Amino acid sequence: MADTPKDAEKAADLENSDSDNESAANESTPAASERGKAPPQNGSDAADKPPTKASEKAKKAPFKPGPAHLRRKSLRRKRRLFGFVTLLLPVLWIVGWDLARRFYQIRTFDRPHLYGYLGSIAESAVVWGIILHTVSRRRGLLQAILLPIFVFLYATATGVQAAFNAFWNVYLSIDGLVHSKSIAWSIVGTLPLSKPIVFIHFLIAIAAAVGIAVLARKVVRPTKWGRRVVPFFLPAAFIAPTQIPVSYRKIQSTPPDLIYFHGMTALVKEHLGYTNDSPDLRVQRRDPESVPTFKAQPARPRNVVLLLQESMRADVTCVEYDPDCALATPFSNKVVPDRYPFVEMRAHDSTTAISISNIWSGVRPTETREVLHSVPLIWDYADAAGYDTAYWTSQNLMFGNARLYIQDIPVSQFAVGTNLDREAPLDEGALDSLLTDRVIADWDQLREPFFAVVHYSNCHFPYVYDPNHAPFQPADFNKAAESNESYRNYYKDVVYLSDMAVARLITHIRSTEKGDRTVLVYTSDHGESFREHWQLGHTSSLYDEEIQVPGWIDAPEGTLSPEEAASLKKAKNEYVWHLDLAPTFLDLMGIWNDPNLAPYRARMMGHPLTRPERTIEPVPLTNCTWVWECSFRNWGLMQGPMKIEAREWDGEFHCFNVAEDPLELNNLGEGPCTPMPELARQMYHSMPNITPPGRPVVNWGK
User: How far is CA 685 from CA 636, 649, 699, in A?
Assistant: First the structure.
């Protein structure tokens, strides 16, 4: 008959006390000796017989274990060792995979980070060991409750981190979690679960969690005291990963499971209101609507590539070709001498996330959250038209959840900052030179016709600076007011260095056969301020130092029709906008007139620069949208040279004529900009300064 659970428990207790029983049995007592004698014959009582010399000798002889006994003892030792190793399996699995993924990074850890890594491995071992030890109990309510909890926690933490690393070449941390709108989606890293690379890693993690739990149930034999004492440490095991600090940014000298639990804890605390690290939701995952098939009929056979710069002011750039370019972009200036410049191009904002939404979708930044998170992007249209597609960037898209905006685009070639460099800084990203290297390496893989975006990053504060390539002097990374000019020179040197990478890529493209059929479109997401209106950097205003950006198109001979070339040439001194770029891309790809595009085209206020019609209605300017909510409240409108803007402390709009007052020093009052102030009040529903204490949500465009 099979043993009952109670019998099995007793047997385990007896097994664990074998060594004590053996030492007692080895004592050569008379009773023990008597048990070894033959039964008495003929009913006589053997105890009545006097001891013989042989029996006396037997009592004095030491116990000699036989081969079977030694085998059992060795087996018990091995079983205990195997049980201990089984309790270490969770951390061994995690660290093993971590070493496989980033051994060359881990081996470069300095001493503090190496000690931190070893210490956090010990923490992970203790945490999982305590939980698994309790799971290995043969019976009891605690074991029944903890078994599914262990499988869920272990499979989720390891599966999410493995899949996330395979996708983004970095572990999911607080940076990619704290801005999330949904806790449920964040549990699985907001990953595209249908993609094979993600699904397979989750499947492996689930199998590992179940396998470890089953093995522990079979081979781990908790002692009586272990069963009684270890459960008291369970609360500490569950609390420790949520409270002990981890290394989560750049170096990540902590095992991935602890980084995951640390990030999820931060997200939950943010949602519950214990912290205020993300007062406004950042980029969320798009749910792109499907698009029909388009028939591409471009005026000429051509590919299209967008070169998108970061934080680059128009006035540090040679927008128009200048053989003596003394500004910060001499390299790109030299390699595209026949480009079509747009000297009055403007962004609608000074925030990267909002700019890329404007450029890639073509819809107004004042649209609803539903529209901004479902509208197709240029890659969707290109893919539906039969174009090959690509996206490369040196940006670290863990910043503000920016990864989610491009996670689902259809591309054949793809790389972000953390793919180029695991330790890419959060703000300035991987080196722009590495981005150029990657695009050059992938260039031959593109199938014509194609649409691609190359998105640079290093001009973002705190900037990537190389003293060996810094012609603008004196240069000083010092934001003090008295150092403003040397600080601006430092920024110009940063632009200069990045421009070297851009020019090297253009040179390679133009040296290839595909390059002879490739139209290049160049701009920056926004500008950068240096105290022109009492602010530094970007996002804080809509003055021209933050929204006037460089723009040009370079098209090899034969890639444009005469009408397209004439329109681009005419646009040189006209007011053109980022919202004109998506229509321009669609026209270059030959689908702007496709009837299937009509409902999507109706939502775009911009016009192709390749056609004579221009955008002349008032265009929205805002750093507050449902893609990237208000970091700093400011908005306005612009129509031709007339602009209105208001910042967080303003109760009325300032009006400027940028043609007559390019430095925007003379506020004309609202009157000369009529009717834009009233239109802006209708569009944004309030003035920026209407913000009661506590910053409640204001309906400024929903």
Answer: 12, 16, 7
Rg (CA), the chain: 35
Residue 666: both structure tokens together: 């003379």
Helix, strand, coil percentages in the chain from 3-state DSSP, rounded to 5: 50, 10, 45
Q: What is the pTM of this model?
A: 0.86
- pLDDT band per the 50, 70, 90 thresholds, residue 282: confident
- The token pair that represents 87 in the structure block: 């309790």
> How many angstroms separate the CA atoms of 166 and 411, rounded?
17
The stretches of 17-66 forming alpha helices (DSSP H) are 18-25, 30-35, 53-60
Listed in sequence order, the DSSP H helices in 385-452 are 403-406, 417-420, 432-442
d(CA 321, CA 337) in angstroms, rounded, equals 6
Cβ neighbours of residue 647 closer than 8 Å, sequence gap 6 or more: 540, 541, 632, 633, 634, 688
Q: Per-residue pLDDT tens for 630-661?
A: 878 899 999 999 999 999 889 999 999 999 99
CA angle (384 as vertex; 380, 386 as ends), nearest 5 = 120
* Cα distance between residue 478 and residue 481, in whole Å: 9
Q: Is 70 helix (H, G, I), strand (E, B) or coil?
A: helix
Q: What is the mean pLDDT of the chain?
A: 89
Higher pLDDT, 78 or 111: 111
Which H helix or E strand runs over 220?
none
